[in-house]
Every structure is written in C-alpha cells, then in structure tokens.
Amino acid sequence: MDGAALAGGEAEVEAAVTRCGMVPRPYVAGDCVITAGGRPVARLRGAAVALHEGPEGDMDRVTDAPTCRRTADGRPVLAHESHVARMAEDEPARLVRAPGERLPTARVRPRLPLGDFLLVSRLEEATGRRRAYRAGSRGTAAHDVPPDPWYVREHNGTLPQLALMELALQPCGLLGGAIGVSAEHPDRDFSCRNLEGTARLLRRVDPRGTTVRQRGTLRSHTSLPGGIMQRYDIELLDGDDVFWTGTAVHGYLTAELLAQQQGLDDGRCVLPWLDRQPAAPEDVLRRDLSGDTRLGRGRLALLADTVVVPRGGDHGRGYVLCDKPVDPDDWFFDHHFLHDPVLPGSVGVQTLYQAVHAFALLTGLTDGMDRPVPEVAVGEELRWSYRGQILREHRRVRAEVHIRDVRRDAGRVLVRADGSVWRDDLRIYRVTGIAVDIGPASYGRRPPEQRSLGRRRAGGRAAGPREAGGWETGGREADGGHEPGGGRETAGGREPAGDRKTAGGREAGR
Q: Before 337, cis peptide (omega within 30)?
C-alpha cells in the first residue's frame, strides 16, 4: 500500500466479486483495487463481508415465530432465504428441530437442490404441528424469479416443463422438512425422491422478473418400514390467481428401501418399441441432435443420438428413441442433492418433451413457421411415475415417445405423446399426457412492461385455457388429423409438410 498517495486525497475502490452465498451467513467475497491520483495504491485479495443477526435474532433456527424478513406486501415469513439455503447446503434438521430433539448423524438427508437449481426462496407460512403430519397441513412458499433465468434462456425464451415441475415440487420438500420429516431415521441415510405426480398448466405464463407463490397441502402421510410416503396437492400462483395445479407423491426412503426399487416392470427387461420390432422400419431418420440449439442449449441440451420413425410407435403416428451416455460430470449431479447426487426426474421428463419437439422438426410439422419454439400446452394433464433412479455410475439413458395425435390451428401445432425412460436396460419412468404447443417465436411474447403471469378479462374472471393460449378439447384436426411424415398423400405422391401446390406454384406456411 502506498500510504503517501492516499494522504489528503480521494480514493476509489473497485471490487470484483469472486463468490457469494448464504451459508453459514450471507456473505460476499472479492478482490479489490484502491486507486488514488489515477494509479493503484493498494490491492486486497479475498476481502469478504458477512451479515450477522442482532442479539435478538437467531438464524440457526426456524420457529413458529415470524422472522424479521418481510414479503413485498409487509407480511412476515417463517423461513427466509438464508434458512432455505441452509436446507440445501447444511443439515436441515438443525434449523427446524424441536427442543430436546437430537440431530441426525447420517450424511445423506432430505435436502433442497443447490445453486440456481434451487427454485424456492422462502417459506412464508405453514400450518400443522411438528411431526404430527396431519392431513390438511399447508405451507405457502415463494420464489423470486430472476429477470433472465437460465432455464428460459437455454430453452429459446420459453418456460420449460422442467422449471414448472421444480417450482411445484421443491416447496413440498421444504414443507416436509419444516413439519418434521428431516428428523426421521436420524442415524440412517435418508433420501427424498419424488415418485409420481400430475401437472396441469391453466394459462400461459411468463414469470421472468416476478414472484411465484407456491402452495402445498399435505393430503396423506404413510409410515413404512424404513420410509415415509407423503401425498400433496400443489398450486402455483400469481398473487392470488392460480395458474398451475398438480399433485405429488414424495418418498422419504432409507438406503435399504431405495435399493429395492425394481423399475416399472417388476425388474424385467422390457425393451423400447424399436428394439422389439422383428425387422427395422423402412422410413427411419437417424440424427445426432447434441448440437441442435433449436431443442435446447447449455444445461438443456438433453438429446444426442436420436431415431425417428414417422409412422412408428404404438399408435402408428410417430415414434422417437433417444440414446445418451450418462456423464458423471453432468451439471445436475452437483445440484441435486448435496451428498446424494441423482438425475432429477424433471430432467427425464424434459428430455421427453424435447423428443416430441424433435419429431415435429424432423418430420416437417413446423415447416413454414418463423423460428418455431415449443411451449407447455395449456389445459393438458401430464402424469408421471418414477420407479428407479439414475446415478453417476450408470451407463446410459434411453428415452422414447409414442406420438398419439397432432393438431394444427392458426399457424401452430399441438403434438400429444406418451413416453418412457430407461436406465441402462431397466425402464424406470412412465410419462403420459405429454403435450407440446409449437408456434412461431413471436407467439406469446410480450414486452417486459406488460409482462405478468396471467391475463384476466375486464370483468376479473381468469381467462380459460383457450383464451390464455390453449387448445379447445375436441378441436378440429387439420386435414383430418396427422399424417406421419408431415405431408398429405396426393395422386402424385406425398407433398412436403407445410406446403401445398397451387396453380401458380407452391404456397408456403399452410
């Protein structure tokens, strides 16, 4: 440090933040350069500041008493951002233990995801006595969505199903921990796994830069030898308006019980549809989609070797099989969860959604659209069941979808499908009701100053699925339905999808 240069003059400090976090207390660390007279006079490396509570505060416990943290409308919260971060990075039972309750000694405990995969910010309110597990116990959490969240940016500007699922499921884990699950089986490894659920988007949403409220209600609690099963009803809200509803079954399982999962077919090896065919289908498209940014970028680049059979599958309307090796360094293993890395089920579901999108792109269903992008279809119910997990030591993931139907309307296309996911040779996920709404890139986009999670009529009633960008049940199918391959038969053969011949030539964008 040049003390003489600082004497009697002004100094400027420039800091470059190198890390920040919430555990054990909110902190920021960085490197600083102090300049005076236009030249550097001091450098500080690893400078850090942390926030600590006052003498009356206690950041080490979540109690029934509200914290000093307030919501945007002035209401106190039960667990603030630092508490939630510690439920991801620390021992959750340390925060919510009752007087006299001993801390768990096992390393693997039910925790929330880490980093920017944590999609719950705070617990605003909760009802129910600790470890009573009464049906009807309710918790309301909230998540402050960044203006440019990674999962929208890497999904070409639309909200993926993965994000909706995580927004809904993570608060159930937070509520379960708050009412006592984190203290069960304290001396045994104890993992939280979502086992099944349903989801329905009620209206189109753009949550960037807003706060999503997450409401979960415990419907049942079942104790098992070595585990617990909890069933929840879930709602996602914009203020007081619900835009997403669903259910979830969470299993809290010891390592011994978790090891008993045998997949969906009682441990039998059931091959994908393509591998069961006596002869290879003739109209097969094979693509390496690992670099196709139309499907997803960065962490959401989920597809690799892909086979499309335009007239294949259980319904003869189309089939896709994706094959990808398990990368032990993939991003989700470090985010989901501490000491208990596992591929999130939402990643498997998102892979199936991308497979449906790939089918639409490769068979010509989107021909004529200006930069088509996929969105979760409004009003359609998704269902999933998980009976196994994908860990770092597994070799590959295979995902297949069977196209059920395709509908066209007003320059958009709706593709419905069912799917499954394999871990190595074991089928472990079954997903039905996949519905991808594909339209031009400009569809559904609104300027930031007009952005809100929902659109309401002048009279105050929430817009229905069709009014909010959804599809009418039983709506018409263009040309009598989907014809595999994306075109229509004529006397001279098949016309490419999206085009039709006129007297003057070819008319695009049909």
A: yes
